[in-house]
Amino acid sequence: MSARDMSMKSMEAVGNSDREKWLLLFADDAIVEDPIGISIFDPTGLGHYGKEEIAKFFDEAIAPNRKIEFEITASYECGQEVANVGTITTTLSNGQQVRVSGVYTYKINNAGKLIALRAFWEQDKVEFLS
């Protein structure tokens, strides 16, 4: 399975709020950085290492939302990595929608598991739609 395929599986699992399916995509020593650096999701800016921290990230950043939709406008795959360019529109639990434009990278290992999911987006450029 390619890195692009894994990125699509990741987006599908997140869009369906399927925690278990999403976690199964990751290697035990994987990292999630969404966004990269210090944020409300990662006060240390060091990323979420390992399945336990990735599961906690899902519970805090993904699960509380009503809906998460991905629109990928370009995708560049090289070796075992892919960079997807696009937007993520999230409907928060209170019904407010926010849109984030960015570059979302996924790297797989030789076993086809995700070892890195990194999101490049700027917090001060988040669009509040409603």
Gyration radius, in Å: 14 Å
Tally of structural domains = 1
- Helix proportion: 10-25%
- Percent of residues in β-strands: 35-45%
Determine the number of helices (DSSP H or I, runs of at least 4 residues): 3
Please identify, by name, the CATH architecture.
Roll
DSSP, total strands: 7
**3D shape:** globular
> CATH topology, what is it called?
Nuclear Transport Factor 2, Chain: A
Low-confidence parts lasting 5 or more residues at pLDDT below 50?
none
Q: What is the level 1 CATH name?
A: Alpha Beta
Largest sheet: 7 strands, mixed
Write the H/E string, N to C: HHEEHEEEEE
Mean pLDDT: 97
Question: What is the first-to-last residue Cα distance?
Answer: 38 Å
* Structural class computed from helices and strand pairing: alpha+beta
Features:
single chain, alpha+beta, Nuclear Transport Factor 2, Chain: A, 7-stranded mixed beta sheet, 3 helices, 7 strands
Q: Strands, helices and their partners?
A:
Layout: H1 3-15, H2 19-24, E1 26-33, E2 48-49, H3 50-62, E3 67-78, E4 81-91, E5 97-108, E6 114-120, E7 127-128
Parallel strand pairs: 1-6
Antiparallel strand pairs: 1-2, 3-4, 4-5, 5-6, 5-7
